[in-house]
Amino acid sequence: MYAGAITRNPDAIAAMFTEDGVYEAPLAPDGHPLRHLVGRAAIRTGTSAYHQQPTYQATMNVERSAYVLHDTADPDVFIAEIDVAFDEADGRRTTMSLLQIFRLRDGQIAKLRDYFSELPSVVSDDHSS
Protein backbone atom coordinates (compact mmCIF):
# COMPACT_ATOMS: atom_id res chain seq x y z
CA MET A 1 0.00 0.00 0.00
CA TYR A 2 2.82 2.40 0.84
CA ALA A 3 4.68 2.13 -2.50
CA GLY A 4 1.48 2.24 -4.52
CA ALA A 5 -1.41 4.11 -2.92
CA ILE A 6 0.55 6.40 -0.61
CA THR A 7 3.79 7.38 -2.37
CA ARG A 8 2.84 6.33 -5.94
CA ASN A 9 6.50 5.40 -6.50
CA PRO A 10 7.04 3.29 -9.66
CA ASP A 11 10.68 2.58 -8.77
CA ALA A 12 9.69 1.18 -5.36
CA ILE A 13 6.91 -0.89 -6.91
CA ALA A 14 9.19 -2.32 -9.62
CA ALA A 15 11.91 -3.11 -7.06
CA MET A 16 9.53 -5.52 -5.28
CA PHE A 17 9.35 -7.69 -8.44
CA THR A 18 11.76 -10.23 -9.87
CA GLU A 19 13.54 -9.07 -13.03
CA ASP A 20 11.07 -11.17 -15.09
CA GLY A 21 8.09 -10.42 -12.85
CA VAL A 22 4.56 -10.18 -14.18
CA TYR A 23 1.91 -7.66 -13.12
CA GLU A 24 -1.60 -8.32 -14.39
CA ALA A 25 -4.83 -6.41 -13.82
CA PRO A 26 -7.38 -8.79 -15.40
CA LEU A 27 -10.39 -6.52 -14.78
CA ALA A 28 -8.75 -3.46 -16.33
CA PRO A 29 -9.83 -2.68 -19.90
CA ASP A 30 -7.54 -3.26 -22.87
CA GLY A 31 -5.11 -0.36 -23.17
CA HIS A 32 -5.02 0.30 -19.41
CA PRO A 33 -1.42 0.95 -18.29
CA LEU A 34 -1.56 -1.90 -15.74
CA ARG A 35 -3.40 -4.50 -17.84
CA HIS A 36 -0.39 -6.81 -18.50
CA LEU A 37 3.22 -5.93 -17.69
CA VAL A 38 6.15 -8.32 -18.01
CA GLY A 39 9.56 -7.48 -16.56
CA ARG A 40 10.69 -4.96 -13.99
CA ALA A 41 11.24 -2.23 -16.59
CA ALA A 42 7.71 -2.66 -18.00
CA ILE A 43 6.27 -2.64 -14.47
CA ARG A 44 8.12 0.61 -13.72
CA THR A 45 6.93 2.17 -16.99
CA GLY A 46 3.32 0.96 -16.60
CA THR A 47 2.93 2.04 -12.99
CA SER A 48 4.54 5.39 -13.83
CA ALA A 49 2.03 5.92 -16.66
CA TYR A 50 -0.84 4.92 -14.36
CA HIS A 51 0.29 7.32 -11.64
CA GLN A 52 0.51 10.20 -14.14
CA GLN A 53 -3.22 9.92 -14.77
CA PRO A 54 -5.46 12.25 -12.78
CA THR A 55 -5.67 11.06 -9.20
CA TYR A 56 -8.78 10.49 -7.16
CA GLN A 57 -9.24 13.72 -5.20
CA ALA A 58 -9.48 12.52 -1.61
CA THR A 59 -7.17 11.84 1.32
CA MET A 60 -6.23 8.25 2.11
CA ASN A 61 -7.39 7.38 5.61
CA VAL A 62 -4.80 4.96 7.01
CA GLU A 63 -6.84 4.25 10.15
CA ARG A 64 -9.89 3.09 8.15
CA SER A 65 -7.87 1.27 5.48
CA ALA A 66 -7.43 -2.44 6.13
CA TYR A 67 -6.14 -5.66 4.69
CA VAL A 68 -6.42 -9.37 5.32
CA LEU A 69 -3.76 -11.83 4.19
CA HIS A 70 -4.68 -15.41 3.31
CA ASP A 71 -2.14 -18.20 3.21
CA THR A 72 -2.40 -20.99 0.66
CA ALA A 73 -1.06 -24.54 0.51
CA ASP A 74 1.88 -23.14 -1.50
CA PRO A 75 4.17 -21.11 0.82
CA ASP A 76 5.11 -18.84 -2.10
CA VAL A 77 1.50 -17.87 -2.86
CA PHE A 78 -0.76 -15.65 -0.76
CA ILE A 79 -3.87 -13.59 -1.28
CA ALA A 80 -4.45 -10.07 0.01
CA GLU A 81 -7.86 -8.47 0.43
CA ILE A 82 -7.36 -4.72 0.65
CA ASP A 83 -9.78 -1.90 1.40
CA VAL A 84 -8.23 1.51 0.83
CA ALA A 85 -10.35 4.13 2.59
CA PHE A 86 -10.53 7.76 1.53
CA ASP A 87 -12.00 10.88 3.11
CA GLU A 88 -13.47 13.29 0.58
CA ALA A 89 -13.45 17.07 0.99
CA ASP A 90 -17.26 17.14 1.31
CA GLY A 91 -17.16 14.68 4.24
CA ARG A 92 -18.11 11.56 2.29
CA ARG A 93 -16.14 8.39 2.79
CA THR A 94 -15.03 6.28 -0.14
CA THR A 95 -13.51 2.82 -0.24
CA MET A 96 -11.62 1.12 -3.05
CA SER A 97 -11.49 -2.65 -2.62
CA LEU A 98 -8.84 -4.82 -4.22
CA LEU A 99 -8.00 -8.51 -4.28
CA GLN A 100 -4.39 -9.35 -5.08
CA ILE A 101 -2.86 -12.77 -5.64
CA PHE A 102 0.91 -12.88 -5.15
CA ARG A 103 3.39 -15.55 -6.26
CA LEU A 104 6.86 -15.05 -4.77
CA ARG A 105 10.28 -16.26 -5.83
CA ASP A 106 13.31 -15.70 -3.61
CA GLY A 107 11.43 -13.10 -1.56
CA GLN A 108 10.32 -10.98 -4.52
CA ILE A 109 7.07 -10.88 -6.46
CA ALA A 110 7.25 -13.15 -9.51
CA LYS A 111 3.59 -12.64 -10.42
CA LEU A 112 0.88 -10.33 -9.15
CA ARG A 113 -2.72 -10.55 -10.28
CA ASP A 114 -4.42 -7.34 -9.14
CA TYR A 115 -8.22 -7.33 -9.23
CA PHE A 116 -9.62 -3.85 -8.69
CA SER A 117 -12.36 -1.57 -9.87
CA GLU A 118 -10.94 1.57 -11.44
CA LEU A 119 -13.33 3.96 -9.67
CA PRO A 120 -13.78 3.83 -5.89
CA SER A 121 -17.30 3.10 -4.66
CA VAL A 122 -18.77 5.75 -2.41
CA VAL A 123 -19.82 4.54 1.02
CA SER A 124 -22.12 6.78 3.03
CA ASP A 125 -21.28 7.56 6.64
CA ASP A 126 -24.16 5.32 7.70
CA HIS A 127 -22.58 2.30 5.99
CA SER A 128 -18.87 2.86 6.56
CA SER A 129 -16.74 0.27 8.27
Could you walk me through the main structural features you see in this protein, from its secondary elements to its overall organization?
- This protein has 129 residues and is α+β, with helices and mostly antiparallel strands.
- Helices cover 18% and strands 43% of the residues.
- The protein has three helices and eight strands; from the N terminus they run H-H-E-E-H-E-E-E-E-E-E.
- Strands 1, 2, 3, 4, 5, 6, 7 and 8 form an eight-stranded mixed beta sheet that branches.
- A hairpin with a 5-residue loop joins strand 4 and strand 5.
- The chain starts with a helix and ends in a 6-residue tail after the last strand.
- The model is unreliable at 120-129 (pLDDT under 50).
List the topology elements.
Elements: H1 2-6, H2 10-15, E1 17-24, E2 36-38, H3 40-51, E3 59-60, E4 66-71, E5 77-87, E6 93-105, E7 108-116, E8 121-123
Parallel strand pairs: 1-7
Antiparallel strand pairs: 1-2, 3-5, 4-5, 5-6, 6-7, 6-8
Please describe the structure with a list of short key phrases separated by commas or semicolons.
eight-stranded mixed β-sheet, 129 residues
Total strand segments: 8
Figure out the total of helices. 3
Rg, Cα atoms, Å = 15 Å
Strand content: 35-45%
> How does the major sheet shape up?
8 strands, mixed
| Backbone shape | globular
In short:
It contains 3 helices and 8 strands.
